[in-house]
Amino acid sequence: MMVTYLYRCPDRHETDLAAPMGQAPAHTGCACGNQARRTFTAPMVRAVPRTGERVRDAAEQSTELPAVTTMSAPAPQPLADPRHALLPRA
Ligand SMILES: [Zn+2]
User: Residue 16 falls within a domain, yes or no?
Assistant: First the structure.
């Protein structure tokens, strides 16, 4: 899972850095050349995982830990337009 961390250099510039959760470095380079230190704000976690990750995670879970089904399967959801993956993300 990618998380956006906030860094602030001694000149108070702010830099965003995306890193896997729990693996952000303590410092990163600021655009001004200073070392920016990580600030401990609440990380901005992507609320909606990408469709590909969701499908892969579901496949892995069904391999290692199959869910026991007690009801008939729900109707399949229509797939999102794959062109959405090409749009820029905030
Ligand atoms: Zn700076």
Answer: yes
How close is the Cα of 32 to the center of ligand 1, in Å? 4
DSSP states along 6-39: EEE-TT--EEEEEEETT---SEEE-TTSSEEEEE
Q: Quote the CA–CA distance of 20 and 41 in Å, as a whole number.
A: 16
pTM of the model: 0.45
Ligand 1: distance of its center to the CA of 18 in Å?
18
Distance from the alpha carbon of residue 2 to the mean position of ligand 1, in angstroms: 24
- 17 found inside a domain: yes
Ligand 1 mean position, distance from CA 4 (Å): 18
Q: Looking at the 3D structure of the chain, how many domains does it have?
A: 1
Residue 86 placed within a domain:
no
The residue that leads in pLDDT, 77 or 31, is 31
CATH number at residue 28: 2.20.28
User: 44: CA distance to ligand 1 center in Å?
Assistant: 21
Residues 23-59 pLDDT 10s: 999 999 999 999 999 987 665 566 655 666 666 666 6
